[in-house]
Amino acid sequence: MRKVFKFAMLAVMALALVVSAVGCGGSQPKEQAKEPAKTDAKPKLVVGSDTTFAPFEFTDPKTGKYIGFDVDLIQAIADEAGYELDFQSMAFDGLIAALQANQIDAAISAMTITPERAKVVDFSEPYYKSGLIVAVQAKNNDIKGFNDLKGKKIAVQSGTTGAMQAEKATDKDKITYFTNTDQALLELKNGGVDAVINDYPVSAYFIQQGNNDVKLVGEILSAEEYGIAVPKGKTETLEKINAALKKLKENGKYAEIYKKWFGEEPK
Ligand code: ARG
Predict the structure, then answer these.
(1) Where does the record place the Ionotropic glutamate receptor C-terminal domain (predicted)?
(2) Residue among 111, 128, 130, 222 to mutate when testing ligand 1 (max atoms within 8 A of CB)
(3) CA 122–ligand 1 middle distance (angstroms)
(4) Does the residue 21 lie in any domain?
(5) Which residue range(s) make up the domain with 198?
(6) 59 φ, ψ to 5°?
(7) In the structure, which protein residues have their CB atom closer than 6 angstroms to any atom of ligand 1?
(8) Are the C-beta atoms of residues 260 and 67 closer than 8 Å to each other?
(9) Are 82 and 214 in a shared domain?
(10) How confident is the model at residue 15 (pLDDT cuts 50, 70, 90)?
(11) How far apart are CA 64 and CA 267, in angstroms?
């Protein structure tokens, strides 16, 4: 009796294994079959981006795909320049190092063109005009702009121009550095800090998404421009990106993508 029972158990386990193995293998060939046969292989463009920066680059909660203004723009640039896009998500403060180590061919990540960065990477022509803004809790009536931040606790994303600005605005030990901008904004919501310094369009989008307990105060600081970064001296890649960007601005595709994400004509 016991032997029979043991045998039955083993049989059930073996069957389970077979079923799960079939389940795994079964779906793969189907997916591969969906891809068109590659005849003339295009050169690959490996692009790094920190995909936690809506509406520029973020994960679509419904599909799990990367979406945003930068994502559409770099796809259009790759199509125009004849590249096959390989889009990779990575931490913002690792992008410059990844470019320097030639691990990626380009970075598009709402990255501000700054003189310091331009020493170590090359930038495309600017593709978006931006600036920094202070965000505080909606109930805060104390902080009205950059000038009220002395001695206040500020959350920022590591390696950003917002972080550099925070270092000018308050004492270093009052700054909390996060890997993602979302984390910095959540820290503000939770009352862990008094303010967040971040790119205006991103903090504005965050509030628009239903975070009414946060507000923006004061003026937008210093005009910033975003550029696509490439490793220093990669002139061929840079020229192709610039030529494609120019074409997209001329043929209306750039304006179409801009309107899709910002609901207005390009500035
Ligand atoms: N524009 C700012 C900078 O260049 C912030 C960019 C952050 N981008 C991102 N995808 N997290 O420093």
Answers:
(1) 44-264
(2) 111
(3) 16
(4) no
(5) 130-224
(6) -95, 130
(7) 50, 52-53, 57, 92, 109-112, 157, 160-161, 181, 199
(8) no
(9) no
(10) very low
(11) 30
Residue 6 has pLDDT above 90, yes or no: no
Q: Is residue 28 part of a domain?
A: no
Mean pLDDT score of the chain: 90
Report pLDDT digits (tens) over 27-67: 444 445 555 555 578 999 999 999 999 999 999 999 999 99
| % of the chain at pLDDT higher than 70 | 85
CA geometry: angle 93, 243, 54, nearest 5 deg: 35
Any domain includes 201: yes
Instruction: State the DSSP code for 146.
Output: G
| Residues 244 and 119 placed together within one structural domain of the fold | yes
Q: Answer yes or no: do 81 and 190 share one domain.
A: no
pTM over 0.90: no
Tokens of 33: 């079959």
Count of positions (residues) in the chain:
267
User: Which residue has tokens 């899709």?
Assistant: 260
Whole-angstrom distance, CA of residue 246 vs CA of residue 49 = 22
Q: Let me know: does 216 contact 131? Beta carbons within 8 Å.
A: no
pLDDT value at position 39?
A: 59
Strand 84-89 with 44-49, pairing: parallel
> pLDDT by residue (tens digit) across 188-235?
999 999 999 999 999 999 999 999 999 999 999 878 999 999 999 999
| Domains contained in the chain, number | 2
